[in-house]
Amino acid sequence: xxxxxxxxxxxxxxxxxxxxxxxxxxxxxxxxxxxxxxxxxxxxxxxxxxxxxxxxxxxxxxxxxxxxxxxxxxxxxxxxxxxxxxxxxxxxxxxxxxxxxxxxxxxxxxxxxxxxxxxxxxxxxxxxxxxxxxxxxxxxxxxxxxxxxxxxxxxxxxxxxxxxxxxxxxxxxxxxxxxxxxxxxxxxxxx
Length: 191
Description:
By secondary structure, the chain is α+β, with helices and mostly antiparallel strands.
């Protein structure tokens, strides 16, 4: 059992590192979210797009649709989302396919596994980067705590950050976070 946990942690670390190494600065649809930051000073939050609207045209939107949870991020509840860039998703998909034989289609079709991964990117409420860095950790919707230190969350670099939506805050990250239970599952599949 200890071997599986160690292997799972190693696999999760490899996934984040693979995504971070191949990630470029946010581009295209990723940068659409950055517009929200400048709008805060000029408009009230009610005039800002929702988190779901900010994700339009990104791999994150595709994943939210596949997990059938996109509507959650279009509602009135406030969330903080750690949004992997498209490059981070691409690096993770490449790693899973090359190391484990799991295609992007396989992952997107596995609603339970995908939902666990996505919920490890979301916290309740509005949490600014300043508050997150001061706290050093955040409890995600999946129930796990994520460590935040040195401008990183679980090994993925934060930035751009503090992009406001009418129903929360989005922080980009350059890696896809893998919760411990999913890391164990992937370790079994990949071994």
